[in-house]
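ARCHIVE CARD
CATEGORY: sequence design from structure
SOURCE FIELD: tokenized fold
FIELD CONTENT:
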């Protein structure tokens, strides 16, 4: 029991460090995409910059808006942060202390609750900009969760298991992305929309909402929201690599190091997309999932179900 607790705490510390330095990678990547210098003043090549940012945020005075509903206002960032860390329990490693047989259902349940943290943050701030940002984020997240759940059914139909570890191990000879190229593309776009990232970052539209649902937050509250957002980006990169670019952990070439390189590639793809595309229009965003991804996913799913039934028959 003690080993399990220590292992979990150590994993959470590693996740927080990964999130911190992923922010540095994003700022450096965006700066070179835009032909400018990124953070380079703090220490050697700006490497301690995330630690300096964390120290600054955690030592600032906590803001208390006069008209805010204090209990949900302070609980919302903590709630979002806890949910982001919970998803990392599904990391498919041979050294994991816990094994989730129904990991896909756990993922859908936890990711479905993410909207409540955003809703609480926007509503409890008692600011019209924060409320508008949270309503946008909720509509966007709920819409794309439908297509995300349908896309998740493709690996389930092929493997016949709800376990992420079995889905990963079943791709020892061929990646699912080669079998379902359009579906893997839809999954990645859905991941970007689920995490409210550019070009789908309507929850934080600076031009019209000042900062969006987190405008009234500062210091530790903003840090927790920030950590939750980037932890979700990394975990969605993890599931993208797992569902469509997995492989057996029992052979040398598919060790945890190789798998994490795949995760890093998808994480950098989030940055690349942000630096390459302007913000989408909101009605086009909703039309993309309801008129594009949903019919396409249902059609592909019907085809895969028919093929699976013919093969097993």
């Amino acid at each position: 029991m003690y080993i399990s607790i220590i292992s979990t705490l150590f994993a959470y510390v590693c996740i927080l460090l990964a999130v911190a330095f992923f922010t540095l990678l994003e700022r450096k990547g965006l700066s070179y995409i835009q032909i400018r210098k990124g953070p380079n003043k703090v220490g050697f090549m700006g490497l301690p910059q995330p630690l300096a940012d964390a120290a600054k945020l955690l030592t600032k005075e906590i803001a208390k808006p006069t008209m805010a509903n204090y209990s949900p206002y302070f609980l919302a960032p903590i709630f979002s942060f806890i949910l982001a860390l919970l998803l990392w329990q599904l990391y498919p490693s041979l050294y994991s202390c816990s094994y989730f047989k129904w990991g896909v259902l756990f993922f859908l349940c936890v990711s479905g609750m993410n909207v409540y943290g955003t809703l609480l943050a926007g509503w409890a701030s008692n600011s019209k900009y924060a409320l508008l940002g949270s309503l946008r984020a909720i509509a966007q997240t709920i819409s794309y969760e439908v297509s995300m759940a349908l896309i998740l059914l493709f690996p389930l139909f092929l493997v016949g298991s709800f376990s992420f570890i079995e889905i990963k191990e079943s791709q020892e000879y061929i990646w699912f992305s080669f079998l379902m190229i359009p579906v893997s593309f839809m999954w990645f776009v859905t991941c970007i929309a689920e995490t409210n990232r550019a070009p789908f970052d309507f929850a934080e539209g600076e031009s019209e909402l000042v900062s969006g649902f987190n405008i009234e937050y500062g210091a530790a509250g903003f840090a927790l929201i920030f950590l939750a957002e980037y932890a979700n980006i990394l975990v969605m990169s993890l599931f993208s690599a797992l569902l469509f670019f997995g492989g057996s952990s029992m052979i040398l070439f598919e060790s945890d190091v190789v798998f994490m390189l795949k995760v890093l590639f998808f994480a950098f793809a989030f940055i690349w997309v942000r630096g390459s595309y302007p913000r989408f229009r909101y009605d086009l965003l909703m039309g993309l999932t309801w008129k594009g991804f949903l019919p396409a996913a249902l059609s592909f799913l019907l085809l895969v179900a028919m093929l699976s039934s013919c093969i097993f028959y």
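CARD ANNOTATION: The two ends are 45 Å apart (CA to CA). The chain has twelve helices and no strands.
SHELF: design records, drawer C
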